[in-house]
DNA sequence: CAATACAGTTAGCCTTTGCTAAGTTATTTA
DNA sequence: TAAATAACTTAGCAAAGGCTAACTGTATTG
């Protein structure tokens, strides 16, 4: 392993930040593309889990309504979720999460809650916090989640 | 205007949060889908602007390298940016931003910087902050940006 | 200045995520 | 219980965003 020649000058306040090294920059975008591959899956399983918990069952029509998409779109997505082993169902019947689906739903729900509570603790209004959390949650690393939780706890502790 | 019947119980700590009303829930997801439509465009114009500022010109090969994507993908995307009036170029030559492209780049760059500085102020390491900011930036409302700036200023002021 | 290397484009393919329209199954109700 | 309504599925379409392979144009350099 040879050290990459570092042509990044040390940070200065008077000029615009230099571009990061190409490989690091590429990794940033790759991480985003990566998040985009799983984010819809996460939202679906999280929603299915929430529907089961709050209304006793998860039906396609409810999902379509809450996601704001057509039932056909939900039907196709459910097919994908089944083929990925996250969801189980019989034709024309309501949906269930597999063990794997439950696990993903649990993680997603928790991460979502941390981000939402953090935004509220930051002083963002509830409506805005909900909207922003829905998108941000998929792009937040564990390290950032930890920092958010620290802040939220501090903030509520000081009340 | 009639007030929507509010079946959301007042928040309780002992039970899981209730689901938001369907229309509000749908709006959350719609906002995310919306952000996804412009997010790549924003990253491209921001990068093109940065390349012009830092290296004098923006070439497809550089973009491909920094985005971690094939040159063919860049070529196609540049076609889209041109058809949207954000970028101008002659075949086989380097890229320029239109007025509209400049405006989008300016906004994106500023928003990106606010999110990045905020994450650092929160205590997130530089590498992680860069990665998370690249994704989060597209899902952050003006209200949240304001809250982030307030926090960052406070934090640096107290140093 | 010819050969080579590098940069950019085009064609053709794939997956994801959306849609509408049309069909099928299940449930409700007259 | 037959008819009507609601729920679900399927087929077929489109746009976005990736890829590789093949081609074309530009720049370097022997
Ligand atoms: Mn979520
Ligand atoms: Mn989400
Ligand atoms: Mn950006
Ligand atoms: Mn970005």
Write a structural description.
The structure is a homodimer of 159-residue chains. The first copy, chain A, is mainly α. In chain A, 67% of the residues lie in helices and 3% in strands. The first copy, chain A, has helices at residues 22-55, 60-67, 71-83, 99-122, 126-136, 142-158; strands at residues 87-88, 96-97. Chain A has a two-stranded antiparallel sheet. In chain A, strand 1 and strand 2 form a beta hairpin. In chain A, helix 1 crosses helix 4, helix 2 crosses helix 3 and helix 4 crosses helix 6 (142-158). At the A-B interface, helix 1, helix 2, helix 4, helix 5 and helix 6 of A face helix 1, helix 2, helix 4, helix 5 and helix 6 of B. One manganese (II) ion binds at residues 43, 134, 137-138 of chain A. One manganese (II) ion is lined by residues 43, 46, 108, 112, 134, 137 of chain B. The first copy, chain A, binds a DNA duplex (30 and 30 nucleotides) through helix 1 and helix 3.
Task: Please outline the helices and strands.
The structure is a homodimer of 159-residue chains.
Chain A: H1 22-55, H2 60-67, H3 71-83, E1 87-88, E2 96-97, H4 99-122, H5 126-136, H6 142-158
Antiparallel strand pairs in A: 1-2
Helix pairs in contact in A: 1-4, 2-3, 4-5, 4-6
The complex binds manganese (II) ion (4 copies).
Residues 43, 134, 137-138 of chain A line the site of one manganese (II) ion.
Chain A binds a DNA duplex (30 and 30 nucleotides) through helix 1 and helix 3.
